[in-house]
Specification:
Shape: globular
Strand order of the largest sheet: 1-2-3-4-5-6
Structural class: alpha/beta
Strand content: 5-15%
Order of helices and strands: HEEEHEHHEHHHEHEEEEEHEHHHHH
CATH class: Alpha Beta
Length: 348
């Protein structure tokens, strides 16, 4: 019996050592996974910007999906085939534009994942009707007529531009689980809710930085103030944040991988100056709606396209009204010299 007890004791010790080793392996595995670059998933869209990227990653043993792709059957089939939806734990949205959040309502029904949205998008949900009425008032102020706004109202409500949002969600800035080790960096400009998610050595940037694309800064109401959201001022502030990503691998929402943070930002600023120079010669008393018609010969059947073009004009006019704001920021982040000549031509 004494021999049997000794054998049992030895077996018990071996089992405990084996279990501790297994736990260390699992913990180390999770630690390694948290350092791994997320997997890029590319899904077709019908929009002019082309295919969209979403990303999956396993951190601390929890499967995360960053953005969802558009609300299409093709996108659903892609996620079903390429992401383990039964294990999906978190869905984190960079910003609520159709190609980035379009399947959140579907994922809410099909999975047990928690959905996280930026704070500013949360405001749009809980104050949806108020936001739309304020937006219509703002669009009247920049020259659009009531007949256009009626068509625009329909497009905003029929789900073709903004599909259904989730019924239950958490706010990114408040509720991301700490074990994920993600840093959030709000970088408004393209939209007021743009969110960058930063891991170890990488950053998922949504539409904040895109290679070779001048992403439209969207005309919108700031629900914290009730006034127009100032994309231009917000973008200038975001530039200071974006250059802190110079040592990260940038994982964008569209097109190819970013060559470098500086080259991407310089492309955008360069295009801003080119386009500002184009409208700077137009009479100041021209309304934004009139400029859209004059420059783009806009006879678009879909009012949302006219809205996008108007959004860009408002952004450029804000720059022309206060160009020194951007010049100072570019000097501070050591990016002014390459675009100094174009800056001068834009404000001449």
């Amino acid at each position: 019996m004494r021999g049997q007890s000794r054998v049992c004791l030895i077996f018990s010790l071996c089992l405990r050592v084996s279990r501790e080793r297994s736990e260390r392996v699992v913990k180390n595995s999770y630690r390694i996974q948290s350092h791994m670059t997320p997997i890029q998933h590319t899904i077709n869209t019908e929009y002019a910007v082309g295919p969209v990227h979403c990303y999956s990653a396993e951190i601390a043993g929890e499967l995360i999906l960053f953005d969802t792709g558009p609300p299409t059957e093709e996108a659903k089939r892609y996620l079903q085939k390429n992401v383990d939806l039964e294990r999906l734990k978190h869905v984190i949205i960079t910003h609520c534009h159709i190609d980035h959040y379009g399947l959140v309502r579907w994922l809410e029904r099909e999975t047990a994942a928690t959905i996280y949205l930026p704070f500013r998008d949360h405001l749009k949900i809980i104050r949806h009707a108020e936001r739309l009425e304020l937006m219509y008032d703002l669009m009247l102020q920049i020259g659009f007529e009531a007949a256009f706004l009626e068509r625009f109202r329909v497009s905003m409500e029929d789900g073709t531009v903004f599909p259904p949002l989730p019924e239950n969600f958490q706010i990114i800035e408040k509720s991301l689980p700490p074990q994920l080790g993600l840093t959030t960096l709000p970088c408004p400009g393209h939209s007021q809710s743009d969110m960058v998610l930063i891991g170890t050595g990488w950053a998922i940037t949504g539409d904040v930085m895109l290679q070779g694309i001048f992403q439209t800064p969207l005309f919108d109401v700031d629900l914290l103030t009730g006034e127009r959201f100032r994309n231009y001022a917000a973008y200038c502030e975001s530039l200071v944040k974006l250059v802190t990503l110079r040592d990260k691998q940038i994982l964008p929402g569209h097109r190819q991988t970013i060559d470098s943070v500086d080259s991407c930002l310089l492309f955008y600023v360069d295009k801003l100056f080119e386009r500002a120079a184009r409208i700077s010669k137009l009479p100041l008393d021209m309304t934004v709606a009139e400029i859209v018609t004059k420059l783009f010969k806009d006879n678009s059947k879909h009012p949302f396209i006219s809205y996008l073009k108007a959004s860009e004009i408002v952004f450029l006019r804000d720059f022309l009204a206060e160009p020194e704001l951007l010049r100072k920021v570019l000097i501070d982040i050591d990016l002014f010299s390459p675009v100094a000549d174009k800056f001068s031509r834009a404000i001449a």
